[in-house]
Amino acid sequence: xxxxxxxxSAALVGGSVAIFGALRRLALALPQPAAVRSRPGRVWxxxxxxxxxxxxxxxxxxxxxxxxxxxxxxxxxxxxxxxSGHLLVCxxxxxxxxxxxxxIFNHQSRSxxxxxxxxxxxxxxxxxxxxTGRFLVAAVLLLLVEVSxxxxxxxxxxxxxxxxxxxxxxxxxxxxxLMYFAFRLAPxxxxxxxxxxxxxxxxxxxxxxxxxxxxxxxILMYFSRLLRSDFFPSLRKGSAGRDVDGEKFLID
Length: 252
What we know:
252 residues
């Protein structure tokens, strides 16, 4: 990519950061459930989850559309390219940068350190893809995870708001599990297999493979927590009396 292309991509990423900043301010103006207002520690989490939900809906549907519109991309994961995929990666890079800044500036780093690690991995990987123009298809496949994140975020919003509708939470619990397999575990497993088999382990390929393997470990850890929390609560350790205020989201 030439200097002009890099400058345009940087502008797109910066524009995305600004968009999510505006969404954050909008989330501040939205009404909050009584269960959130009564617990100061939850106000930031609620707002942060709403912004995360917006990104998941937009990026998840965008990734699905990109692959549906250009299915031939799947035959060239290393060098396939589409304008839609490039824009999506820039858009999500902006979200990860915004969320990182939101965590740090609101003094949530200690409780959300896992997400800072994840965001650092995602930002560094996406920047390398944007600059080189390679492995963009892999990024689009990874961003299918945002379809799963829609239901994962709904799960936490329901828990935080204490919505008196067990049936709604129960329905989302099983949909969330199905989406986790279809849009998180399956694409991740396929890409891990592809990288280990076909990608040369040097330079950018080595960097992305290492990122992918670390992400595998994180996803399996989160999956085990999710299963213990929603399906095998008797296996949870040290959760008695635990409050959900101290963690960014995902498991509790």
